[in-house]
Amino acid sequence: MADPIEIEIALEEARHAEGLHALGVDRIELCENLAEGGLTPSFGRAREVVAATPLPVYAMLRPRAGNFHYSSSEQHQMLLDLEMLSKTGIRGVVVGALTEEGNLDERFMTLVTNKAKQHNLGITFHRAFDVCKDSQAVLHTLVKLGVERILTSGFQPKVDAQGLAKILRWASGRIQIQAGSGVHSEVVPGLKEAGIIAFHCTARKWSASDNTFGFEGEWKRDEDKIKALVTAARA
Asked: Can you give the pTM of this predicted structure?
């Protein structure tokens, strides 16, 4: 019987993708600038990450930091980025768009999902879900559009089991609910008790440098965090 647990790691660099499958990870979310919550990766970066791992790679489609209401120019950019990224070997995209009033931008999400499906790409709706109005109605629309999963914290800055349990009830098995934001081994048991079996986290740590100009530090993969998360999730 297949293990229903799914673990996704968000990362920026190809070297952080190497060997993740051997640690028990199931999927990668590829972004630029994780410090801003993740932005669209470059074509070259996507190609290199796909080449570095056998895991499915989902690329973020987010042109800038800040809110999720995008101008017509930004939406056009996102569609162009999707077209180019589809040629890199990615398996899906992570996207979300709202109107200025905070409702789902159904017109644009329909365009994105249709284009993704043309390229046989899966779709994750990201944490724009946590700040939208009438989230239950948004979930129903995402199901109708054929979105695979919703990445959500349960309407709180960090994962909230009670909020996630409510979303799971709305979903009724029609769409996967993936917990993200502050996910680590210590909170996993409570999330599993709420019914969550899909987990998303960023697992890296900053290695500082004594260089006065600050150019010599680097992000390193936090293998201890990944191993602890995998152990807790699959316990």
From this structure: 0.95
Angle, vertex CA 36, rays to CA 183 and CA 171, nearest 5? 45
Contact 179, 152 (CB under 8 A): yes
130: which residues sit within 8 A by CB, 6+ positions away? 152, 153, 154, 155, 156
Give me the residues of the chain with pLDDT under 70, please. Answer: 1-2, 210-214
Task: Give the Cα separation of 124 and 224 in Å (integer).
Answer: 27
Instruction: Please write down the HEC assignment for all residues of 89-127.
Output: CCCEEEECCECCCCCECHHHHHHHHHHHHHCCCEEEECH
Q: What is the pLDDT of residue 2?
A: 63
3-state DSSP assignment of residue 133: coil
Average pLDDT, the chain: 95
For domain 6-234, the CATH superfamily is Copper homeostasis (CutC) domain (3.20.20.380)
Residue 63 phi/psi, 5-degree rounding, is -75, -15
